[in-house]
Amino acid sequence: MKSSKRVLIISLVIAVVFVLWGTFLPKHLTEITSNIQDFLQKKFGWFYLLSATAFLVFVVTMIFSRFGHIKLGKDDEEPEYSYLSWFAMLFSAGMGIGLVFWGVAEPLSHYADPPLAKEGTPQAAQAALVYSLFHWGLHPWGIYTLIGLGLAYFKFRKNAPGLISSIFTPLLGDRVHGPIGRAIDILAVFATVFGVATSLGFGAVQISGGLSFLFKGIENDFGTQLVIIIIVTFLFTLSALSGLDKGIKYLSNTNVLLAVLLMLFLFFVGPTNFMMNFFTTTLGAYLQELPQLSLRVTPFPESELSKWTQNWTIFYWAWWIAWAPFVGTFIARISRGRTIREFVIGVLAVPTIFSALWFAALGGGGIYSEMFQQAGIIEVMNEKGTEIALFKFLEQYPLSPILITLAILLISSFFITSADSATFVLGMLTTGGRLNPTKSIKLTWGVIQSAAAVVLLASGGLEGLQTASIIAAFPFTFIMIGIGISLYKTLQTDMPKLRRR
Q: Using alpha carbons only, what angle is made at residue 303 by residues 301 and 306, rounded to the nearest 5 degrees?
């Protein structure tokens, strides 16, 4: 039996076991995984913080290193996609739907419960935007960059299989084709399947919430969410079967266009001066405080700051690491022909600047509404859930029904793109790293993801599955450390050959 078939079969078995566990014993799954995750966050929070910061520092040094000019491909190879399509695809796969979901909700959550300021004050408002950008800025994209860079270099420069295990060839030799290599790839599949399945479930909840907010006759219940998942599954499967150059590319360009239109409308119709001042101040404070924010963890476990850091920052770092196999693999696939310097700058800088603008428009606008207009968004969040925050915020703007409809379309489009990208990546990871997996494999993974989301939404086991996915981040952090070591070792070895050339 080929190694790739073993990875596929073992991954499928693990997926089925966890889905059945979440279906029939949802409380048990949630309790077990929550206890494990709570232990990891409390005992190894420092490890997550140091690792995420080390990954960011490592990839930033690549920009200024002697390796920066090396192409991810042959020396004369041109990039496969234009800058616009490249940025759109990596951003849509990386965190598009998350930014829409949390664009208003996270800054207002920090505004109502800041770690080092009094709630509801200008200081709390400033901290809210800085922390939101911190959680969605350079660190997560640094994590994605490390895996993407390693995969792209080994695949396009050294013609290795498009598997995470192949990056370890300089360290493990032929053992990458044995149990160790398969374990690395299976862990990557595990994190991807359950991370995307939970996102499908939570995305359906937000779309359902938006529809119920817009149309009073529609209930935000399981029936509505089931219909949404069925429709989205059909659409992302159709997109996946149409191929990378059609489905994901066109959807990603549409995502960015819709997001920019919504953001520009909010900037020009809302409190423009307040938002732009907030953007400038937040970006400056973020860059100034980045070293301190990156390593902020208190030795006093019962303090409010410790609890806040575990619930937000450490949770986010674990979540981004859990998503790294999926996003990193996809970014690598679309980055052929870029130089290392171009790759790192593009993947780090563009999404971070866009995120800063996004939070200034939505988060800054939401804080303005709470501070000066008593919009009651925080109250609605507490009563009906964070998925309603965006729609309550948009309700106060002119043409609010059109804006809410646009937001629902944007969520749906990002939703479809993420699921589409995931089926593509899962196909690569379970077919020996093939750049263009077969349609049957992509269809299989698409159905599995959607089925998992449906049964877990129905049984209440979605939260447990999300936590299980995040637990996978702990062992995968060690894999990422190995990726950095292996990549640097290979670049050091290849550099004399490149100079002779």
A: 65
Pull the structure tokens for residue 282. Answer: 């937040």
The conformation of residue 77, written as its DSSP 8-state character, comes to P
Q: What is the pLDDT of residue 1?
A: 44
pLDDT for 93 equals 66
> How many Å separate Cα 251 from the centre of its chain?
17
Q: Which residue reads 């014993």 in tokens? A: 25
Weakly modelled stretches of the chain, pLDDT under 70: 1-4, 93-96, 240-248, 298-302, 460-462, 464-465, 497-501
Q: Which of 101, 138, 45 is nearest to 348 (CA)?
A: 138
What pLDDT is stored for residue 367 in this prediction?
A: 93
Which helix or strand (DSSP H or E) is residue 500 part of?
Answer: helix 473-500
Q: Tell which residue, 433, 3, 441, 432, has the closest CA to residue 182.
A: 3
Which helix H or strand E contains 365, and what residues bound it? Answer: helix 364-372
Q: Would you tell me how many other CB atoms lie within 10 Å of the CB of residue 248?
A: 29
DSSP for residue 154: I
Q: Among residues 408, 382, 399, 42, which one has the least CA distance to residue 258? A: 408
Helix/strand/coil percentages in the chain, nearest 5: 85, 0, 15
What predicted TM-score, i.e. pTM, was given to this entire model? 0.90
Q: Interhelix angle for 179-214 vs 462-471, to 10°?
A: 140
Would you say 410 and 262 are in contact if contact means Cβ atoms under 8 Å apart?
yes
